[in-house]
Amino acid sequence: FANLSADNYGVWAPAMESLLKTHKLWMVTGGFSCEPDFVDADNLTKEEKREWRDWMEEMGAAAGMIFLCLNDTQKINIEDYRRRDNLMGMWTSLKALHHQKTMTTRFTAYDTFFSICKDPDKSLSALHARVIKIMADVHSLCPSNFNLSKLDEELQIMALIHALPMPEYTTFVDSIFL
């Protein structure tokens, strides 16, 4: 699967979760596996030291795997968490960043949706599945009170943005998406 970019979180996240599960690293990533408890934290037994080391290695392996599955533009978003070995912070910040229910994230999803092209080596059913998946991503980014009038407003704004001549409006358009 493709590395995480600005517009593929909806496809990337389940694939990344599956990859972590196949390597038995999802439990630590998903927050289902906590740091081992110790009877006496100042006087660890060999077994407790081994448990803690194994847990830390799992955390590091999962964090490394996630980091390797990010485009360079996405790595900056989790750099602080990576440096502090905060796996849960990495995962939740990526989700929060890419799953914000804002007009900007919907614009990115719409842009992806309207840019879909049939790959020459893919079937029509694969194209159809891709369209359905990306539309589901768009829907997941809409707040519960989202309606047709809000969609009309957003499409008008999006049309205006796309109509601006580039490169003279590049800085302006980029500032909208910050």
UniProtKB/TrEMBL annotation:
This is DUF4219 domain-containing protein. Pfam families: Retrotran_gag_2. It comes from Armillaria gallica.
